[in-house]
Amino acid sequence: MSAVTSSVRSISDLALIAGVSVSTVSRALTGKGTLNQTTRDRIRAIAAEHGFRLNVAAQNLRLGRTGSIGVLFPLGHEKAQALSDPFFSTMLGYLADALTERGYDLLLSRITPETEMWLDDFVRSGRTDGIILIGQSNQGAAINRLAAHYRQMVVWGAYSPENCYTTVGSDNFAGGALAAHRLLHRGAKRLAWFGHANAPEFAARQAGFLSALPDAVRRDTTVVPMHITPEGSRASARAYFAAGHRPDGIFAASDVGAISVMAAAHEFGIAVPHDMAVIGFDDIMLARLSNPPLTTIRQDIEGGARMLVELLLRRMAGGETQSVQFAPQLIIRETA
Amino acid sequence: MSAVTSSVRSISDLALIAGVSVSTVSRALTGKGTLNQTTRDRIRAIAAEHGFRLNVAAQNLRLGRTGSIGVLFPLGHEKAQALSDPFFSTMLGYLADALTERGYDLLLSRITPETEMWLDDFVRSGRTDGIILIGQSNQGAAINRLAAHYRQMVVWGAYSPENCYTTVGSDNFAGGALAAHRLLHRGAKRLAWFGHANAPEFAARQAGFLSALPDAVRRDTTVVPMHITPEGSRASARAYFAAGHRPDGIFAASDVGAISVMAAAHEFGIAVPHDMAVIGFDDIMLARLSNPPLTTIRQDIEGGARMLVELLLRRMAGGETQSVQFAPQLIIRETA
DNA sequence: CTGTTAGCGCCTTCAA
DNA sequence: TTGAAGGCGCTAACAG
After folding, report:
1. Average pLDDT over residues A77-86
2. In CA terms, which of A13, A66, A227, B289 is 20 to 30 Å from A269?
3. Which positions on strand C lie below 7 Å from a protein C-beta?
């Protein structure tokens, strides 16, 4: 066992002990360059004995890199916990896995877009070699502006031909349509969409949903603005039900939103799915644990995370990339 | 608007343009040292014009720091998504907030404890100025060993006088007792504990729970081993109910566990709380959205996160710290 | 008030 | 196969 706090703090200390030059130590420890195998083994043994490891920060400075990737959640207007939504934390977990596998650290940042330049500022501080943005929020303009001269970025979110950056995400429009068809198939006629159109992903879900409805149904469909937090979702739903609305089919922008709506419905004695069908979006782990289990539109979070990392590294290496859209999948459980 | 990719890559470039020395630029931009206000403003203007920002990595190397704090989840045996549990992700979100406020970046690491030295290796690589460990898992020995000669670490988890490191956490034993009292108060007599004792937090919850039961009740109380994942929890519960067990009171190691047990109970036609009372632990956001809303033992996650950061920074500054235990709180909803 | 200089810990070309 | 030297971008004495 070796001490973490040791007198050997740099390769020059080690060089002194081993009686060789710093460059020899460097070569021995990095494995780069040519070196006598005996010398290499000897130096590595000494390093291990003293518990010495190369200083990653210095190494990176010299190599002109940082070795870490920034993962940013630009949920500006939603000052509340972005990470509290299981969708985001699940994504984060998979990103951590994928980045670790590729030898990168994950720098988590929750900078709130106060100024116009928050993204540019982050990039210019040089803290990371690349950026993964989770969700565009309402920052489309800032993102596009940055993308015009910064390549090392990929974005989880909605695809648009007008974006000059690479996105990875679900086909939200198709997902919305899937939900509409399912509700219609169940015979629902008085529908409501719970969500907001601030962020493009949600706007697309809404558009896909509405566009798949027959005109007669669409005319009677309510759009209920709902925030991303469970508290906000529940409050919106409460107010909606309290006003006397009794839809027979609901499509919510997220699973957390759907579960919140169900909780509110329960307060009003509305039985799901008997009185009202509910469909969520995401298929987070808790969707199958809800009571009743939630019918939802599934997003492939793990696949998305891997794709984000893959494409980002390709861009960092100078390659070109194209946006990717995953086909969403209807998961039928009990609520619709 | 200024380009992110600019020809001005270092303070020496900027010094050249401004016609001053690098140290003057450094002083102007950092605000340290004394400098003519006019010169300072002029240099800052030029920097802004060229979109220049100090390179944080180089700055940190020079200052002998990294500017980031590592947040590690040592859930070794639970190879699955540690972050998928909302408790952890909520904690992570609050940590990100607290660290950002203090000017630190958050480096997320999910290194799985494969070797004995995983923690030492991480520390010696010098990637962070300090470490926040979330949960001890079964790594108590490794943590203690590291703590013997590494100060810059705090741990979220169970307190024990034998630990030579500072912990922040709930009084899990007291929390277990709270759950027991509540179930007894409701008249429950055939109890079960769903959880495992691999990690000390959970072991303490179990011990507190069992110790608060009268002997007669305790003898009939079942301990059902349950993994941390919802799938695992649900499978355990299913097997348990399938074997014909019909307890009238359940205490689960976590809210996710409790909700999973409720989902399984539902499959067997067991009504909560009528046939069986259920109490969880954590009070994650989804506890109040479950159907019926979950009675649980609340942990102050935000307070815990702030305390962890506070204590870590104090230790990094050379100060001494003592372990902190938060008093858990019984939140009565509908399941018990 | 400002410039010069010497590193932080490491990698890499160039020589030997 | 190994060593010497320069420099990644920055800060902080020490001079002037």
Report:
1. 65
2. A227
3. 1-13
Does B289 contact A260 at a Cβ distance shorter than 8 Å?
Answer: yes
Separation of alpha carbons B132 and B72, rounded Å? 6
Residues 156-215 of A with CB under 8 A from B: none
Best of B2, B122, B291 to disrupt the A interface (most A CBs within 10 Å) is: B291
| B77 compared with A12, residue with greater pLDDT | A12
Q: What is the H or E stretch that residue B68 is in?
A: strand B68-72
Say which DSSP state A21 is in: -
Q: Token match 């800032």: residue?
A: A142
No. of helices (H) and no. of strands (E), chain A: 13, 12
B243-to-B185, B226, B299 alpha-carbon distances in Å: 27, 16, 33
Going from the C-alpha of A255 to that of each of A88, A262, A287, A295, B43, the distances in angstroms are: 12, 10, 7, 9, 51
Residue A75, helix vs strand vs coil: coil
Establish, for the pair of chains A and B, how many residue pairs have beta carbons separated by less than 8 Å. 178
Model confidence over A119-139: pLDDT tens digits?
A: 888 888 889 999 999 999 888
In the DSSP assignment, the letter for residue B126 is T
Distance A262 CA to D6 C1' (A): 67
Q: Are B329 and B297 in contact (CB under 8 A)?
A: yes
DSSP three-state, residue A3: coil
The reported pLDDT for the residue numbered B301 is 94
Distance (Å, rounded) from C-alpha A93 to C-alpha A254? 19
Q: How near does any CA of chain B get to the CA of A138, in Å?
A: 20
Question: In whole angstroms, what is the distance from residue A47 CA to residue A20 CA?
Answer: 13
Closest CA to B335 of B287, B266, B278, B257: B278
What integer pLDDT is reported at residue B3 of this predicted model? 47
Between A294 and A82, whose confidence is greater? A294
Nearest nt to A60, CA vs C1'? C10
In whole angstroms, what is the distance from residue B228 CA to residue B234 CA? 10
Residue B150 and residue A5: Cβ atoms within 8 Å? yes
Task: Give Cα B7 to chain centroid, integer Å.
Answer: 42
- What confidence score (pLDDT) does residue A2 get? 44
Which residue bears the tokens 């019926």?
Answer: B292
Q: Which domains, and CATH codes, for chain A?
A: 2-63 (1.10.260.40), 68-170+301-327 (3.40.50.2300), 172-298 (3.40.50.2300)
Q: What's the mean pLDDT in A328-335?
A: 97
Name the residue closest to the C1' of D11 by its CA: B62
Residues in Cβ contact with B21 at an 8 Å cutoff, skipping those fewer than 6 apart: B15
